[in-house]
Inverse folding.
């Protein structure tokens, strides 16, 4: 199944998240069933990233959004585990600092856009400025409502500079979120992640859904599409994200650059047995 086709938000279409099954897992029955496919995807991503790095003609920007515990951190970890760290960067966007707040909302974003040859992952992004800001009235409606067009123009300008943009909305149900919070409570390694605010935000669920739907509807474009990733199953989320990324990178038709030197000459000059200084005959 081509998950890109299945999970993309078609530009210009509207979406009702209540119609999306957050537990969808395609034709795979379990993590075990999907594991060889996931391993294969990661190996392919490794190879594609090497080409991206060598060719330096494209940059790749992966944007992750989703409610708390939807799996943004886990997705960064998974996708990047396949790649050479030299050539990748993750940026997390938190509540704007006083300095960031004195600038336009895209200022802090723009400086972290990956350069040609590299992959950047945004753990939260400029979309917070039409999500948390909209839900909590952190800016007047006339300010945030203009931002959808501003974001589309910004992303289009990046795309024209060879930045390939993929945006993943990780979708979980409120029941799954509560269950993940509960597991955190019981896991000493992750208790530090728990915050009061995460529980309080749950009472704004419906407003968030409305804001997510507006974001998906207004900002899924041909040059920067949104994908809705059913994320109740972490393994399916990983499979879907890695497969969509792989297929998108394949479309770039990247090639390793041709050697700039004459390989035969180098072989003759430096690697033939007779010339090797450590070879007894060359002494
Ligand atoms: P976390 O990703 O769990 O570390 O939390 C980061 C927090 O920063 C979340 O509560 C976000 O909603 C918040 N945040 C990120 N960007 C913005 C923004 N532009 N305005 C207000 N809050 C933001
Ligand atoms: Mg959090």
């Amino acid at each position: 199944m081509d998950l890109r086709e299945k999970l993309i938000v078609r530009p210009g279409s509207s979406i009702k998240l209540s119609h999306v099954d957050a537990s969808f897992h395609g034709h795979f029955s379990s993590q075990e069933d999907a594991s060889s496919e996931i391993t294969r995807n990661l190996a392919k991503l490794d190879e594609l990233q090497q080409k991206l790095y060598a060719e330096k003609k494209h940059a790749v920007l992966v944007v992750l959004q989703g409610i708390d515990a939807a799996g943004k951190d886990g997705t960064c970890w998974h996708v990047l585990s396949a790649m050479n760290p030299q050539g990748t960067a993750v940026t997390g966007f938190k509540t704007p600092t006083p300095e960031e707040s004195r600038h336009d909302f895209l200022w802090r974003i723009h400086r972290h856009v990956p350069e040609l040859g590299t992959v950047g992952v945004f753990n939260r992004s400029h979309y917070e400025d039409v999500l948390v800001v909209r839900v909590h009235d952190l800016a007047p409606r006339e300010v945030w409502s203009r931002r959808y067009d501003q974001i589309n123009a910004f992303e289009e300008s990046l795309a024209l500079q060879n930045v390939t943009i993929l945006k993943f909305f990780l979708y979980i149900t409120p029941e799954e979120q509560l269950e993940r919070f509960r597991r955190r409570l019981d896991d000493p390694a992750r208790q530090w992640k728990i915050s009061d605010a995460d529980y309080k935000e749950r009472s704004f669920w419906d407003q968030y859904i409305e804001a997510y739907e507006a974001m998906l509807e207004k900002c899924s474009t041909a040059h920067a599409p949104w994908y809705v990733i059913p994320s109740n199953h972490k393994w399916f989320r990983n499979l879907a994200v890695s497969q969509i990324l792989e297929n998108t990178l394949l479309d770039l038709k990247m090639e390793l650059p041709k050697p700039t030197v004459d390989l035969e000459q180098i072989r003759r000059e430096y690697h033939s047995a007779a010339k090797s200084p450590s070879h007894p005959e060359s002494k």
About this structure: Residues 184 and 191 are 5 Å apart (CA to CA). Residues 92-96, 124, 128-129, 132-133, 138 surround adenosine monophosphate (ligand 1) (CB under 6 Å). The longest strand covers residues 163-171. The beta strands are 59-66, 88-92, 119-123, 163-171, 226-230.
